[in-house]
C-alpha cells in the first residue's frame, strides 16, 4: 500500500526537504554543465588551429591569454548550444518516465522543478552566450588597447569592456524603439529599467525569429544534401553485376578515347562528311575535339566511380547504405506527415497556439498516443532536424567559407560557428513546437516570446517548411527520372530536327550518314 508521508511532515521538515531538493538540483545542473563544457572544450581543441596566424608570433603573454579566453568563451557557448538542443528530448523523456513510474523512489529527483529550472537556466545562458561571451571574445581578439596605453592583457580587456558596454546601450536603445513601434503601451520610461523581465525576452524574440527563419532555409537544404551524400554511396544494384567487369570496360573505354583524341590532335583531320554524336546531334568542323574531350572526361569519372565502388565491401554496398537511405526517406516522410497534420489542425482551428504554461506538472499525462514509442520517434525526429539544419547551414555558399576544419580552424571562425550553433539550437525547440512535432509546452521565458501568439506567423512557418521540404524532397528523389526524361526529349527533338527539318532546307545534304571522308589540313 502506497502512503503519502508528506501530509505528516512538520514545517521544519518541509523546509529541510525543500533545501535538499534545491541542493540536489544545483548539483545535477552543475554536473551536467561541467560534462557539456569539457566535451565542448575537447571538441574545439580538435578543430582549432595549433598556431593561429592572428596571434603568431606571440609578442607577449597577452596574446596567449587572449587566445585562451576566447577559446573558453567559445567552449561555454558551444556547451550552451548543446544544452539548448537537448531541452525538448530531455523534457519529453523525463515526462514519459515519470508517467510510467509515478511512485518509484529512484526517479523522485526527476521532478517539475528540475525541468523548469533547466529551461530557465538555458534561457539565461543563451542570452549570455549571444550578447556577452561571444561578442566579448570577438572584440578581445580585435582589441589593441587605448591609444597611449601599454600593450598587455589589461588594456585590451578595458577597451573590450568599454566597447561592449557602448554596444549594449546601442542595442538597448534599438530594442526600446522597436518595442515602442510594435506596442505603444510598452514605450514608457519605466520599461527602460526592466532589462531582465522585458528587454531580454523581447530581444531574444527577435533573435529567435531570425533563428527560425534560418532553420526554414537550412533544413530543406540539409534534406537535399543528406540524400545526395547517401545516394552517392547507394550504388545501383551492384550486388547483381560484376564490378570488376564494369571497371575493365570503363578502363578500356578511357584508353580508347585517349588514343582517338591524341591521334586527332596529332593528325589534325578535317571532316568532309557530317558526323553524328551519340545523342543524335550533328558535329561541325572543329567540334570533334571538344566532343572527344567531353567523352573522355565522362569515361574518367566512370573509372573513378567504379574504383571507389570496388573498395567498398559487399555488405556496405548491399545493406548499410541502402538501409541508411531508407531511414532518411522514412524520417523525412514522418516530418512531412506531422507538418501536414499540424497545418490541417491549424486551418480547422483545432490546434491551439503555443502559450506560456505557468503551472507545470511533470508526468501527469503521456505526450504521445503511442506512449514510449511515440516519445522515442519524437526524439529521433528532433535530432534529425538538428542534423539536417547543420548540414544545410554549411551548404550555403557564404557560410561554407567558415566551415570548421580539423586542426585548421582560426579562432575567428570558431567564434562565428559557435554563434551560429547557439542561434540554431536555441530556435530548434520553438520550431519543433510550432510545427506540431511535440506536444510538450514551452516553459519559462520561451513560452513568453511574442511572435508565438501570432496565428499568421505560425501558419506561415508551417507552410514554408512543409512546401520547401516537400519540393526539395520530391526534386531529389525524382532527380534521375527527371534527368532521363529531359534527355530523351532532347534526343527526340534532335533526331526529328536532323532527319526531317534539315533535309527540307538543305536538300543537298545526304540523309544517310556514311563513314567520314577525311583529308589532312594544310
Distance between the termini: 108 Å
What gyration radius follows from the Cα positions, in whole Å?
A: 32 Å
The string of secondary-structure elements, in order, is HHHHHHHEEEHHHHHHHE
User: Given the helix and strand composition, which structural class is it?
Assistant: mainly alpha
Query: Low-confidence runs (pLDDT<50, min 5 residues)?
Result: 509-522
Overall average residue pLDDT: 77
- The helix content is 55-70%
Number of helices: 14
Please state roughly what percent of the residues sit in beta strands, choosing from under 5%, 5-15%, 15-25%, 25-35%, 35-45% or over 45%: under 5%
Quick one: how many beta strands?
A: 4
* Gross morphology: globular
Biggest sheet layout: 2 strands, antiparallel
The order of strands across the largest sheet is: 1-4
Walk me through what this model shows.
The protein is an all-alpha fold. The protein contains 14 helices and four strands. The protein has helices spanning about 10-45, 60-85, 85-100, 110-140, 155-180, 195-235, 245-265, 290-310, 315-350, 370-395, 395-400, 410-435, 455-475, 480-505, and strands spanning about 270, 275, 280-285, 520. A hairpin with a 5-residue loop joins strand 2 (about 275) and strand 3 (about 280-285). Helix 6 (about 195-235) crosses helix 10 (about 370-395), helix 6 (about 195-235) crosses helix 12 (about 410-435) and helix 10 crosses helix 12. The longest helix is centred in the middle third of the chain and has 39 residues, at about 195-235. The termini are far apart. The relative contact order is 0.13. Mean pLDDT is about 75; it is low at about 510-520.
